[in-house]
Amino acid sequence: MIIKAMILECYEAFKEGRLKHVPQDMKPTSAKMTMNWLESILNTREPYNRSGSLLQYKIILEKIEKEFGPQRAREAALVLMPYCQKYNKQSHISILQRF
């Protein structure tokens, strides 16, 4: 199970360029997918075609909004929206619509 501390640790490692970092008790494949997901919403701004957990959406978008402003959080949410709409992920969409 991925918890808030793991998500935040991945986010901080990503910002520092430590893309191979794996938080304690997190599966390496989960960490790698999280890093790829962060790359897609923060840098390439192209869909990664992975939904992530509701907790990841909430925590990461709030961090982006706090650190980079509401416009950047909105842009990240727009990258994530098509995948969620395609697979009718209503709970995820409700989080994205907050931004």
Topology:
Elements: H1 4-15, H2 28-44, H3 54-68, H4 70-86, H5 90-96
The radius of gyration over CA amounts to: 12 Å
Q: Number of DSSP strands?
A: 0
Number of helices: 5
Low-confidence runs: none
Order of helices and strands: HHHHH
Question: What share of the residues does DSSP label as strand, in percent?
Answer: under 5%
What integer is the average pLDDT?
Answer: 96
Q: How many distinct folded domains?
A: 1
Q: What kind of sheet is the major sheet? A: none
The class by helix and strand makeup works out as: mainly alpha
Query: What is the rounded distance between the termini?
Result: 26 Å
Silhouette: globular
Percentage of helical residues?
55-70%
Structure write-up:
Helix content is 69%, strand content 0%. With 99 residues, it is mainly α. It has one domain (4-96). Helix 1 (4-15) crosses helix 3 and helix 3 (54-68) runs antiparallel to helix 4. The N and C termini lie far apart (26 Å). The relative contact order is 0.14.
Distinctive features:
99 residues; single chain; mainly alpha; 5 helices
Short summary of the structure?
This protein is mostly helical and 99 residues long.
